[in-house]
Structures are given as C-alpha cells and as structure tokens.
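To whoever is on call:

I kicked off a structure prediction for a single chain this morning and the downstream step that reads the tokens threw a length-mismatch warning. I double-checked the sequence; it's 766 residues and nothing unusual in it as far as I can see. Pasting both halves so you can look.
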Amino acid sequence: MQAMKYVDVILPLPLEGTFTYSLPPDMDGKVSMGMRVLVPLGRSKRYVAMAVRVHDERPDFAVKDVLNVLDCHPVLLPSQLWLWQWIADYYMSPLGDVYNAALPSGLKTVDGYKPRTETYIELGERYRSEQALHIALNMLRRAEKQEQLLSTYLDLSRWGEYVSEQSSTDPPTNAALPAEITREELMNESHASAAALKALTDKGILRTYEKEVGRLNNGGEPNLDHLKQLNDAQQDAYNRVLLQFMSKQVVLLHGVTSSGKTEIYIHLIRRALERKEQVLYLLPEIALTVQMRERLQRVFGRRLGIYHSKYSDAERVEIWKKQLSDNPYDVILGARSAVFLPFRHLGLVIVDEEHETSFKQQDPAPRYHARSAAIMMAQKSGAKVLLGTATPSMESYQNAQTGKYGLVTLMQRYKDIELPEIEVVDVKDLQRRKMMNGMFSPQLLAGIREALTRKEQVILFQNRRGFAPMVECRQCGWVPHCQNCDVSLTYHRHLNLLTCHYCGLTYQLPTSCPCCGSTDLRGRGYGTEKVEDQVMELFPEARVARMDLDTTRTSHAYERLINDFSAGRTNILIGTQMISKGLDFDRVSLVGILNADSMLNYPDFRAYEHAFMMMAQVSGRAGRKGRRGRVLLQTKNPEVSVVQQVVRNDYEGFFNDLLEERAAFRYPPFSRLIYVFLRHKNDQTVAHAAEYMGMRLRELFGQRVLGPDKPAVAKVKTLNIRKIVLKLENGIDMRRVRQCLHGMEADVLKDKQYNSVQVFFDVDPI
C-alpha cells in the first residue's frame, strides 16, 4: 500500500510557520515546492496556499485534504522561499505576512488573475487557397463593404505574398508569412462596420479567434549605440567599482548629486548582460522610475521590465510569470517590492538612493528594509550589490569605513558643473521685522521672479502636504482631532475637508467652535496646498504644479507631472520629499527650502540625519545642467551645525559629528534597536500589558530595555499604542534575542486579560 503524502504550506494570513495538509492519491506527484494549492481552513474558508515541502511524515494530529492543485509548474523559486524565511525570521514577522507582501494578489486567489485576450482575424479554412479566394471575391462583388473589408485583410496579412511563395518551386524562405491581424487593427484600417465583419464570418470567409496577449509594454529593440561614453572621473569610478567587486560583495558608490552615477550604473548593467546575468535596479520612489525607465529603455529596450505597486495587479502577475519563463526580463527596474520577483540568473543588484527611508516598509507587516533584503538575496544568488547615493546612510557609510563594504567616491559633477550656491535665510529675523510674505522671504520672492524672467524653473520644497497642518479656534485654542487617531486633522482646501493622514478619515470643516461657539477658526502652518495657492496668487503668470501624495495617486499622475516639468510646460514645482529623490531636470536654477526647522525639530534620534539628507538631496536638483544653481534655505536656526554642513556640502564633517554623538548615547551603528509595539482598543488594557511585558523583558535584558512609553502618535485607527525600546549592543546573539521576544510575546498573550492585545516588532527601525 502506497504511503500517504503530506504537504506543508504557507497560508496568506498573519500566522507563524507552515501548516500540514494531506494529498489525496490523485494529486500524488502533482505537487512540488513553490506550487500553489487550494486548502480548507476552519469550517468554510478556503485559501490559496504556497507549498513548501512534500513528505510522508504523518503528523500526530488530524489533517485535511488539499482541495486542488493550481499550478503545473512552481511559481516560487527555492531562492525566493529562502528570502521569505529570512525576512520572517530577521524582522520577526509571521511567514504568512511575508507571503502576502511578496505575491501579487492575482496569484493569491483562485480566479484573481485573468489573462488579457484580444480578438484576431484569419481566413476561414475553406478559403485559404488562391482559387478559393478568387471565388470569395467574385461572390462579394455586389457587397462593396464586405469586399473592401476582405481586401484590406488580405493586404494587411500579406496573404498574397504567402500564397505565391507556397506555390513556388523554390525552397521556402519564410520571408513572407501571413501576419496575425487583430480585429481592432482591421476595423481601424478598413473603416468597415461590425455588420460587414459579421457577414463575412457568417459566410465562413473570415473567422475570429481569441489570443492571450500581454499587458506589458514592449520597450523596442535594445540599442547600445545610445550608451553614453563615460568621462574620465566616471570611468575611474567604474573601474574602481569593478576592482572592489573582486573582494567585496557590496560596494558603496558615494557620488555628489549630478556626478553621473546613473551612467555608471548603465555601464555596469551592460557588463552584467554580456555575462548573461540578470540585474535588479531598485529605486525608493515610484516617481523616479518614470525618468529612469526612459533612460534605460533607450539602451536596453524590451530587455527592461518595470515593477511597482502603481502597476495593476494583472500587470504584476504577468511580470512575475515572465520572470519564470524561458524569456525573462534581463533588467528589472522597480521599487522595494521588486526584491520579491523571481530571478534565475541574478548577477547584479543596484540600490539607488540607498539612504532613503522609503526602502523600509512600515505598515503593514513585514516591516522589512528592501536594501537589507536585496543584499541577502544577492548573497544567496552569488550576485554583487552596488549602493549608490550622494548622502549615504550612517550604517552603510560606517560599513564602508570599517571595510565591510567597498567604497568608491565620485566628487566631481558631470561636465564640471559647480555644486549649487546655498544661501541661508534667517526667517526669525525677517519675521521680527515683519518682512515675510507668508512662508516667503524677500530673497526667495526675488529669486523666483528672476528665474521666471530668465525662463528658468523653480522647485519649492515643503515637507507637509495639505493646506494647513491644523485648524485652531482663535478664541479658546480648540483644535479638531481625529476620533480614531491621536492626531490633529489636516485641512485640505481644495476638498474643503479635514483629513486624518493616519487613517484617512475625512470630516466636514465646522462653521463654529464646538467648545466656545466662536466662528474664528483659522488654519495654522503651511502645507504644499497652501504654498501652491500663495504661489499662484503671487505669480499669476507662472504655470504651477504640486507633487505630493494627494496629486500622485496613480502612475499616470507621476508621469504627467514629471513630463510636464521636464518639458518646461510647468515653471514652478512644489512638493514634499518626493521631489528630493534623484529627479533630473535641465532648467532648474532655483530651489527653495521653505521650512528646514520642521525637519530639524522632529523628536527622533535620526532627525538630523534625515534632515541633512533631504536638504542636500533637494539642493542637488538646482543647476544640474547649464550654469550654477542657487538654493535658498529658510530657517529660524541658521547657526545649527547641520545647516552649515549642508551649505558646505560637508558630508564627512556631518558624519563624524553624528558618529561621535551616536557612540556617546549608544545608538546605531553602535547598537541594534528593536521596537516592541502593543496595541489595543482599551487604553488601560494596553498600558497594563505593556508594563507587564516591560517588567518581564527587564528580567532578561536589564538596562537594555527602555519604556514602555506612549509614542508621539499614541492612538491610530481606534487602537491605543505603547512602545518598548530594546537597545542591544553589537555582537549580541540576535537569534537568541528573537527567540526570547517571541517567547515573551506568547507568555503575555496567554494571560486572559491580555489575549486580545496586538504585539508586533519593528527591527532596525528608521
């Protein structure tokens, strides 16, 4: 009697580990690792699960049968499963959450993905000879529109050439084959009616058939002639990268803004393709893929694929399937989710703007960092990793300084263009003298007018969206807050609504204060929407655009904004941190940083690091081509060291100062951080659970435990939050730490009064 087979699967649910099901005899041999199976759970639910192991080890509990096998071939490679398991382990996230994040939705439902089909036209079988075609044309002499439609089809399909070659005594050359013609193409070319086509199909002269077609764009033929020659500085950096790759798996390319790092990337990609290797090119923002796609497609054509969350689910499924096919994309350009794609021959990973916080997934789980995941994936595949940036993260630069990573610097801008001149504007002094016009200093207003007069472009950076960050009653100080979150509501004037930027709930703007009845309700602060309104009022002749989360909800919105600004159809671009991330515009002569203090005064040990990076990056958008650019940096604290370091472009000084501070207070890179979050609808319940867990953690980790405390935002989506910080010295056994934390979590949740508390971890928070 043949032994019963079992399969361990991952369910697309926030559950730890794998679950075992039995394989009915008719499925024996039809399931292997990486294939999807339909399984029951509970009394009535069914899920698409991922098979990870087939075996004959009978479990000591009752198991249910797999209901169906959904694949003929695996849709997940062993290297991908290894990455899933690494992310689940390192970031302390349920394996089911990793499955959910990694796989497109269309691959997680039974009928979620439907191939796109198109209707094609061909000759009916009885009319595929020259003699039969003559009969058909004679038959249609009195049906002029049908005759015209058939003639158009014969012309488009080159049927005459094909018939002539088939009847020739010479050997066939395959030079002339009947072309496949879509219904849409035929109708457009012939200007015929649907009735004429129906008449021809009813007579059997033409027939229609459906064919699966891809949703993916064809980038055209690769053209290495479009590859730009590297200048001396770039060539030297390129050679040094290759030299470092001989002994290091990861190399940091530290190049100032507009130094031409992208051209070095493109030459490295070409080298990888010549070696028959695949390349993953990661960017932190979807907006960047718009410009980068155009640059890469000019060289690599259809060998380039794009993958990010603004693509439809069906498109992402098709890219996934293409990567598993015999003809995959050689280069994938994408945001952080692209690390989950299948690669059979990965040779190079490029992480551009490696310092960007957008590479870290915040919510929902898994809270992974795409840079770290990419490095681990490359290590598993034997691939090399290039991290590129003008402002390296503290961790990456420290790794380069200590020799863990290779380091290549490129301090010369392309075509020897000077770095922009950065002028600090003391807003506090101007406000005292009543010289500010809203958020605009006289210097900034004069600079904008000058740029517009010279037909140049301006970027204005304000890292808050909406019209006003809060609304306040001028009589009693009442501020409207979200009923579900512990945050004030942001006023969006164009919608005339108050919005919570944490849960998305919207509220009508009250006409009077509910506390004192006053009608004097005013917005406080400035968001990008308010900046846009003021700019349009001050410069009515200018064409103004705004780039923030509210205006870029679709990939087409990104493209329209960026293309309009690149083509000069927009004069002034106002935006949040999106505009700071590597966008390349030819005509920008002035960048205005409207409020540096909002970044500097953030209550976080990384505030100065993030502020330096953001200000240095957005400053780099000025004067990238042509003459030297200018940056006006508005602040109430011009004497702060980080501001002066941005002015001097002194990354080394900034890094050394910050490193000394981090060492003194034992913050990364001199320690490892894990945040433990607890959430519950009842504030008292979560407070008691956090106190109990903090006490138990101190029994194990002592003074390494800080808290519990309320975070800056202590309530989100009706859930009250507490936060415990673990500050762990380098070299500690992290696997043992994770085991202890999971055990502590289980211990807390076993208590009946705390079993409904949510506990989750944020490893290496940013």
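Update from on-call: the warning came from a stale cache, not from the record. Cleared it. Sanity check on the structure: The chain has a mean pLDDT of 90.
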